[in-house]
Amino acid sequence: MPARLPILPGAPLGILGGGQLGRMFTIAARTMGYRVMVLDPDPQSPAGQMADIHLQADYTDHGALKKMAEACAAVTTEFENVPAASLVELSRYTRVAPNAEAVAIVQDRSREKTWLRENGFATAPFALVSHEIELEAGATAAGFPAILKVSRFGYDGKGQIRVNSRQELASAFTELKGVPCVLEGFVQLASEVSVVLARTDSGECSSWPVGENHHINGILDTTRVPASVNQSIQERAQETAMQIAGRLGYVGVMAVEFFVDQGGNLLVNEIAPRPHNSGHYTLDACVTDQFEQQVRALCGLPLGDTRLLSPVVMVNLLGDVWRHGPDWMALLQYPGIKLHLYGKAEARPGRKMGHYNCLAENIDTAAALAEQTRKALGIIPL
Ligand code: AMP
């Protein structure tokens, strides 16, 4: 439903999903004077703890969706696996951004990769495999080594198996229970970068500086800004991300992750229809952070300034750090550290519990601070 814009502070906003991204959206919205309703089945959800109202229900619960639609001037989402049908249902009664069609494309890796190819965006070589008989052709298209990735509900390297031969591919497909997958050729990476941006209803687009990402076991470990990759790659990444947002008719904050291969080619890895872990550096290092921008884009307000105020390295805190009890004093003794914890009660290995930003006068000092504090917390050395 078209909403009367702008939606001004004081109005109630809704968010589907109560994880850490929803929590940081909620904090930003409440800071700006909005009220927030969170829909999430988890009684202890990180965002629910911060919200004015936590609707504890499933994302497909018609009663809960109706309540949210009636109460909220606009609704957004914090994770891509929200059923697109729920966004459609909500959009009959209230403003919903991003739109259901964009979310439906990017939440399914097969659709996303196909859409990227059809729209002329470079990706790693890939093939769709939904049946055993497609494995042979898939192997020819992607080559070896390759990674078999489930199309739906994979995240942080989960639902992915690296394969080196046709035989390994066949057993990986069986291990993934024969669900629809994308088989992707393995890229010899020079680096990984991402662009987080916001786009408004009128098509105005504003991005933050490119983040240089380092992953461990498929999970983001650090983001460094300014990135050390050359300027022309950074400019191409920003242009490509903006073109993708435009083609999707996207409204809100979104992220595009890229591979940079050894030849300097930029390949789109994936699109996230929401703020992104690699954009958490904006919380402390930019004039406007990605969550405030999400509020602004959702409400039809002018976008805020995305300027970088300080070099920064963001470090993720996974549940593994809780094994010995994190030594917070070893971290917080440094005045340039900004700590963000998500209020999760249970620290499981690999679970994102929080992050911190290391701010310094130059990027080398910020990187040294990240390295020193990672060591003090017992995080695997870079
Ligand atoms: P994804 O969940 O697909 O973003 O994958 C998680 C991480 O695994 C990426 O950020 C890369 O570090 C690595 N990865 C995934 N796919 C590939 C690929 N085709 N070639 C090289 N590395 C990959």
What does this structure look like?
α1 packs across α10 (290-299), α2 (62-71) crosses α3 (84-91) and α3 (84-91) runs antiparallel to α4 (100-106). The protein has twelve helices and 18 strands. A hairpin with a 4-residue loop joins β14 (252-261) and β15. The chain has helices at residues 20-31, 62-71, 84-91, 100-106, 109-118, 135-142, 166-175, 231-248, 282-285, 290-299, 328-332, 363-376, and strands at residues 12-16, 35-39, 53-55, 74-77, 95-96, 126-129, 146-150, 160-163, 181-185, 189-199, 205-207, 211-216, 219-225, 252-261, 266-272, 312-318, 337-341, 352-359. Strands 10, 11, 12, 13, 14, 15, 16, 17 and 18 form a nine-stranded antiparallel beta sheet that branches. A five-stranded parallel beta sheet has the order 3-2-1-4-5, with helices on both faces. 30% of the residues lie in helices and 26% in strands. The protein is α+β, with helices and mostly antiparallel strands and 382 residues long. It folds into three domains: 12-96, 3-Layer(aba) Sandwich (Rossmann fold); 125-185, ATP-grasp fold, A domain (Dna Ligase, domain 1, 2-Layer Sandwich); 189-376, ATP-grasp fold, B domain (D-amino Acid Aminotransferase, Chain A, domain 1), CATH 3.30.470.20. The termini are far apart. It binds adenosine monophosphate.
